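Narrative summary of target 7.
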Amino acid sequence: MDAELTARHARVREALERDGLDVALVCGSEYTGFEGAVTYLSGFQIVHRYAYVVLPVDGEPAIVLPAEARYVGEHGDSQIAKQVFADRPGEWLADELRGKRVGVYGLDYVMTVRDYAPLAAAAELVNWDAGYDLARAVKSGAELESVKESVAINVAGFHAFREAWAPGKNAAEVLAPAEEVFVERGCGRLTMNMVLVGAEFAIARADTVFGDFTIPSLEIAGPGGHWVEVSRALGTPSAEVQRMLEAYEEYYEIAQTALHAGATAHDVHRAVSKGFTERGYHLGHVTGHSIGMTMIEHPRIGEGIETVLESNMVFSMHPHAIAADGRECLYMQDTWLVTEEGGVPLAGLEMRIW
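Modeled conformation, tokenized:
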């Protein structure tokens, strides 16, 4: 097991001990954005079905896969030597973890019902989404290099989208050159790219034809598996959207000081959302969230979230300003690095409508 993965295991074990837990059970599935929790602790990337990583405070870790789909990814990529193929993973987990206090990442959204049932009867299950995410929220030097590589790929994809875009073109043909960039540069399946139709997110299909103004939502993970989000609106905005842009410009400046180590997520939310709320806009999506090998991690940047930020945390920020009519909106994404002095927008794209 390499030094990076060994350090990750140590951070998670430290968090387990702090929270009074015996073992972490990390669930991942092929649903885009949810496979990374397993990759983080094992190096294994799920391409089919689902998998679990078992990491005890003391003892050997294991990666557990359903036997009915013997191939669920390149098993040799796993740095965890103990690979278990179980007909019913939940039954194997129940035998292995019986009587233990288990911190589960993915208890609400990822774990299959057939595995939950036997395991819940054998062990005490604790929803540990926040605990696990906070244990991995501060990125190592190697992780930050992976994040920056993903950002560079995302920016190249944005420019490919921008160069292909024109009023009258459809969303599929404009997104295709961006997706080509993403695949060529090692993202594989790890892309989730959309456009906004009104204030709603939509798959980029051929029946979505662009007018004079377009908002893409570009989310990818590069070869290292770290997700990032970078995009800008394109075209000619209405007077209402132009006013939203003023609030975006304010947020972009404020975040460069507000996103500093020692601030709370609540404080950052209040600071960066002020320009939108003072103008009377609804915020339709979270202001921001921690991002890593899972697309959306804790903590989110939002009201009442008192998590204290630390240097080398990475956040996706994307205030979603929606007008009173529920139709006009502005949504642009950036990936930010937290430092002692403030936030650093890693893409370096001008905050404007291109």
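The longest strand covers residues 23-29.
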